[in-house]
Design a protein that fits this description.
232 residues; mainly beta; eight-stranded antiparallel beta barrel; 63% strand
Length: 232
């Protein structure tokens, strides 16, 4: 899966470069580079995970729903706009934030040869896990190629929407996982080149497996924040 995700990401990057290469070949006026910084509040929806162990006909399966705190995400993006004199632009972005665990709601079942002989459930806090020498906090780094369309109505406000594909590098995960994003935003031109704006994004990450032997379902998150950028 790791190689497949990387190959898909590389293919999309190559396709994006191919898409606006002809426009660049026609001369510099066909495209306009830009760079921007981003700050947002990142919220991770509750994440489901499962781990199991088997021995001598006995099988223990523990599932949990992890609740993470919201965190400040910092990002940067560089790209080109006005591709072929249209509203299309393409950018490469990097985002970093901490996924800090708050608590996990656990449920488990013990079975023998397929017959359930006992179940249990409860809530474990991050402090309790840390006291036992376990931390499920993760540093997350996300790399994405984003394609946008800017609606330029001849005014200072420029709304846009975008789609992104990339990789999420989660600290304790075994592999980098494929990430798909949807983006909505609006920029306000402070001057001919300088702009500020607001944007919201939804992200979905393929379910990873981590070093603790936990397999997670797909992870979804959303962010709302501000940007500051410069058009060259």
């Amino acid at each position: 899966m790791k190689n497949v995700n990387r190959k898909l990401f590389a293919a999309v990057l190559g396709g994006s470069l191919f898409a606006f290469a002809p426009a660049m070949a026609d001369g510099l006026p066909a495209v306009s580079p830009y760079i921007e910084g981003q700050i947002s509040r990142m919220h991770i929806n509750d994440v489901d995970g499962t781990t199991s162990a088997a021995a001598g006909g006995f099988n223990a399966v523990v599932s949990g729903e992890a609740d993470y705190k919201s965190d400040i995400a910092l990002g940067a993006e560089i790209g080109v706009r006005k591709i072929a004199d249209t509203g299309f632009r393409v950018g490469a972005s990097f985002t970093s934030f901490d996924a800090e665990l708050e608590q996990v709601d656990l449920s488990g079942a013990l079975s023998f040869n397929g017959v359930v002989i006992g179940t249990a459930s409860g809530t474990v806090t991050a402090d309790q896990l840390e006291a036992a020498g376990v931390t499920l906090d993760n540093d997350v780094k996300a790399y994405s190629i984003n394609t946008y369309y800017d609606f330029d109505f001849g005014k200072k406000f420029i709304p846009y929407f975008g789609l992104g594909i990339g990789l999420a590098d989660i600290e304790n995960a075994d592999d980098k996982e494929l990430m798909i994003s949807g983006i909505l935003g609006i920029n306000y031109m402070l001057s001919e080149n300088l702009y500020a704006g607001a944007r919201a994004a939804y992200h979905r990450v393929n379910g990873p497996s981590d070093s603790f032997g936990i397999s997670y379902d797909d992870i979804s998150a959303y962010s709302v924040g501000a940007v500051m950028g410069f058009n060259f």
